[in-house]
Amino acid sequence: MAVYAIGDVQGCADELHELLQRLHFNLSSDRLWFVGDLVNRGPRSLATLRLVKSLGDAAITVLGNHDLHLLAIARGGAQPRQHDAGLQPIMAAADSEALLDWLQSRPLLHHDSSLGATLLHAGVPPQWDLHTAQSCARELEAVLQGERAGQLYERMYGNDPDTWRDDLEGWDRLRFSINAFTRLRVCDALSGRMVLKFKGPPDSAPEGTQPWFRIPWRKSADERLVFGHWSALGYVNENGALGLDTGCVWGGALTGQRIDAGPAQPVRVPSLSGGLPLED
User: Fold this and answer.
1) Which of 222, 227, 239, 273 has the most CB atoms lying inside 10 A of its own CB?
2) Does domain 3-270 have CATH number 3.40.50.970?
């Protein structure tokens, strides 16, 4: 059995089909880890969601910020933005409710002790060790899969609080965790404060900040972490951190890499659909 991790798809279904062929993915024996953001911006979000759902237990995907935004629009009353047009076919599809139910039941973090690897979308705040990250993920998942999910969608937007405290409670605690798991890129190198508005490459990050996985004192430094979310960062494989968002939807590539045997090289499929009109 092989286990492959795949970067942000964001509706690039054609590239995903091609990548699975290049990886020689075997549905009956192999497993796929998706770093989240299956949908939005790309031309075929509905097809992507259907494909990954159809893989059943062969695919594990964590929630990304665009996945949560889809759920917030469909089930929390959030207003679509101009670049959210690619989400409309999902909400209009005959199988919309089944797809949304499936997406809403995805985790924020997946840890495989046999591989010694953890999957998440964006990042781990430097104050968190793996146990804390797992605990915060389970708290979020319990709300997402319970009666308060709609309230969470209404309250999850915003950048505060931006610094972890063990005594955070309620919606503030949940919002911090959502931002960490689905939006984090850089932190203040001394305090660990999350700087959430930054989206550029690391060499243009605000003074005094570092990519979360390069903070020397982070408590997850000994963990093997697989993530995406940061297309301006591109592929990175350093100190146990494997970043796989290579910006397919922006004209880059969709990247996959085997993670159960090493050393392994990334496999890339150049963008076929970046910049194309959204599906109708």
Assistant:
1) 227
2) no
